Amino acid sequence: MSSVSSDEVVEAGERPGALEGGVPWRRLDVRMLVVHPIREVVQRLPLLAGVLIAGTSTGRTGLWGLVGAVVTVGLGLLRWFTTTYRVAGGRVQVRRGLLRRQVVSAPLDRVRTVDVSAPALYRVLGLVRLTVGTGQSDRRSNTGLRLDGLTAAEAERLRTELLRRPERAAAPSVVTEEVLALAAPSWIRYAPFTLSGFLTVFVIAGFAWRIASEARIDPRRLGQATAGYAQLGAPPWLEALAAALLLLAVVACASTIGYVLAFYRFRLVRGPDGSLQVGRGLVSTRSTTIEGRRLRGVEISEPLLLRAVQGARCIAIATGLRVGRGAERGGTLLLPPAPMEEARRVAGSILGTAEPVAGRLAPHGAAAHRRRYTRLLLAWIPISTVLLVLVWRMSLPPWPWEGSLALLPLGLALAHDRYRSLGHALVGRTLVTSRGSLVRRRCMLACDGIIGWNLDQSFFQRRAGLATLVATTAAGRQQYAVQDVPLDEAVRIADRAVPGLLSPFLVAGEPEPEAVAS
Question: Which of 452, 424, 297 is nearest to 368 (CA)?
């Protein structure tokens, strides 16, 4: 039995008062009697194939296959008959199981997000899937608070009920919803620079290689299919270049197709209650609602290739939403790859001010600058020395050592770019920190969401008089670092961001900290 850690799981046989009341249990839509069997058959195809193979040895392939199909379809039908839900007593409750009855419930005040999605088969039948996020909804195995098979109207009613708070109901707002962002067709030009298609290409290549291996197909023995190519006599470097260009073209096409499928008709809306609602998708649609009071800030993410074409994406920093499995899947994405100016505008609109987004950051000084290069050289010198010794003593080909020499300028450029990304500021009640090169992240975290500080110093940082100040929060990545900042500056930032939190650790009579540059 699996459940969300912040939820309350009750086994059959227990009758707590929280699960009793006059509100009836409701079933999922009856059309799920079509979806569940199909999904069970697809998920258990390897098992059904094994059953058929076992039946072949006894001469009863048809009977074994029929039994396996009937059992699989029966399990799918059983899911619908044994799953019910209700919202009662200030809790959302989902009940499932036959031999092992399980009731998963969570208080309404623990609901962070409501995610409504519609895979292709669901859209054909007019159904949606509603997932309630309570702080651990990014776990891969969690299906406890998922209602798999509702009508769109019922899902919208539940979304409103789950995110409604008593203080909101007492004072209805007259403010209408505000559209913060709409996807433009021109944004598709940023798709090839996300390189998300690499995963798709490698998965397809892996399947193709596996099929060729099982079929005992040797690509080197294709005879006439390769005879014409062999006569061209192309040099190896040209073959490698052509293969690389072909791979990049395929990856760019796959990334573009994935971008269209995932972000078609993207729409970011702020509701009257301050909640943020994101809708997107072509074949499978998805709509995610993030409660406004859970929002703690915004992150602007700039992968290297996307930054080269002046692109970026926005990610929400919200309590109960983690981005460890990727912002797109975790429901924290506020803006897909789009123009940098659009990302800054959306971030400023969400924060209520553009100053944390566009303001200048305080540099971290010469010591942090040197540290970027010394860390590179401490890694490059031993590797290149070992390669040189191997070439000299063991008569290995010289190209690995020559390649390490060629990579040194790239490493130095990367170290310079990493320093350029470093910076911090304290703008009002918002802590701004920037770091990274392959993926540059500018994080704008509300000081009210900071619950603690970690001040880390490695051996080399102590020698350089630097420290890494880590803001601990319950939102987003849960740790946001101001990296390689002078120690006295780190103390000033922490004391100004959350006054009084460091007072027991500061020396009495220490002068009042100066203002942090912003």
Answer: 424
How many CB atoms are closer than 10 A to CB 41? 16
Structure tokens at 48: 């059904």
Q: What is the pLDDT of residues 449-506, one digit of tens each?
A: 999 999 999 999 999 999 999 999 988 888 999 999 999 999 999 999 998 877 776 6
Burial class from Cβ neighbours inside 10 Å (0-12, 13-18, 19+) for residue 366 reads exposed
* Contact (Cβ atoms closer than 8 angstroms) between residue 515 and residue 506: no
The number of C-alpha atoms within 13 Å of 207 and in the hemisphere containing its C-beta is 5
Rounded distance between C-alpha atoms, residue 73 and residue 65, angstroms:
12
Neighbouring CB atoms inside 10 A of 253's CB total 15
Task: For tokens 């897909």, name the residue.
Answer: 336
Tokens in use for 162? Answer: 């789950």
Half-sphere exposure of 28 (CA within 13 A, CB side): 27
Tokens standing for residue 45: 């195809």
With CA atoms as reference, report the closest residue to 93 among 76, 111, 77.
Answer: 111
Is 0.90 topped by the overall pTM?
no
CA 417 to chain centre: 25
Maximum distance among all Cα pairs of the chain, rounded to whole angstroms: 91
The residues that bridge with 408 in the sheet, in sequence order, are none
Distance CA 250, CA 244 (A): 10
Distance from C-alpha of 165 to C-alpha of 162, rounded to nearest angstrom: 8
The backbone torsions φ and ψ at residue 316, rounded to the nearest 5 degrees and listed phi first, read -80, 140
